[in-house]
Design a protein that fits this description.
By secondary structure, the chain is an alpha/beta fold. It has a single domain, classed as TIM Barrel. It has helices spanning about 30-40, 55-65, 90-100, 120-135, 145-160, 175-180, 185-190, 220-225, 230-245, 250-260, 270-280, 290-300; strands at about 10, 45-50, 75-80, 105-110, 135-145, 165-170, 195, 265. β4, α4 and β5 (about 135-145) form a beta-alpha-beta unit. The longest helix is centred in the first third of the chain and has 15 residues, at about 90-100. It starts with 9 loop residues before the first strand and ends in a 15-residue tail after the last helix. The model is unreliable at about 300-314 (pLDDT under 50). The structure holds NADP nicotinamide-adenine-dinucleotide phosphate. NADP nicotinamide-adenine-dinucleotide phosphate binds near residues 11, 48, 144 and 208.
Length: about 325
Amino acid sequence: MFPAEIKFGSGTWAWGDRLLWEYGREYGREDLNAVFQRYLNDGLRFFSTSSSFAEGDSERILGELNARTQVDLLIATKYVPRLWHLRRSDFMEALKQSLTRLQLQKLEIYELCPPVGRMTIQRMAECAAEALDLGLIEQVGLSGYTAQQIDTFNEAFSRFGYSIACLETPYNLLDRSIETDGTLALCRSLNITVIAQQPLAMGMLTGKYDSEAPSSGSRRQMMLRYHTPSLDILLRTMNHIGLENNGKNCAQVALNWIYNKGIVPIPGTKTLSQAIENAQTASWSMSPEQVSLLDTLTGKTDVPVPDEADFPAS
Ligand SMILES: NC(=O)c1ccc[n+]([C@@H]2O[C@H](COP(=O)([O-])OP(=O)(O)OC[C@H]3O[C@@H](n4cnc5c(N)ncnc54)[C@H](OP(=O)(O)O)[C@@H]3O)[C@@H](O)[C@H]2O)c1
């Protein structure tokens, strides 16, 4: 089971990634050292990475940082099946490479990405069970699986006497599809902890960007899928809720809304100032009425526009 006390974690896609996230230009290793130290100081110990992030550099950076601390971290990384992964040994080799980059003997959580080619769900369930039997991993999670894929994996995996600890999946105020496509309900019924990828909609929910002022670099295209005509009114509502909660900003409101749903957000963090803000995710709570207001605003495609007078001048 995923540890119940972990309510919040850190994503690491941007750690070392030059192509999409501008590592080495907008921020660098010193920033990540500061982010890591700050998170540890604030009690955060869950870090999620992937063998595919920055061609393994995200795992390498996390491994180096982890090797320098005495704090007992909870580290998750991902198995990403490839077309040329044909046998169980290919799975084991990928796992061993991740362990080497992370400087670990054993991995707390191994998350499996959706099946590709001969790496079917059944084969991955077998491989994961073998890795558990060998003591190379402690728990198994899934990443980016649909409800149907989770169901199929669960059936195959339970034959080995094992259960799924967690699911990583996109979830934020601009993408609530898991609430309606059966994923969340299935996870709840199987006691699978849901971990929210892209909790800030790649930055769109921070209020820094919109279609007029998009982010720089290759992230722009991916991020624009989160742009909706109702973004402005949502951000102003979030800003208002933040002001009512001792001056929290939009990013903090976006993360706290997820926290209030019992889902574990893992924001990508590049700088110390972002870490200071994000680390507060689970240390406050917006009111049920505020959660409900955000639910209403984002649960419909034609968002009702509240009265202008309800909002402070931005
Ligand atoms: N396929 C996969 O395995 C997969 C896919 C997607 C995500 N994920 C996981 O989910 C994690 C989170 O998703 P994500 O990193 O794509 O997006 P995200 O967490 O929604 O957004 C992260 C970005 O928002 C900005 N930001 C973060 N904190 C902020 C703050 N307090 N104030 C203002 N801006 C802030 C930063 O970018 P700027 O400073 O540049 O604005 C940061 O890089 C990833 O790191 C990864 O671990 C996994």
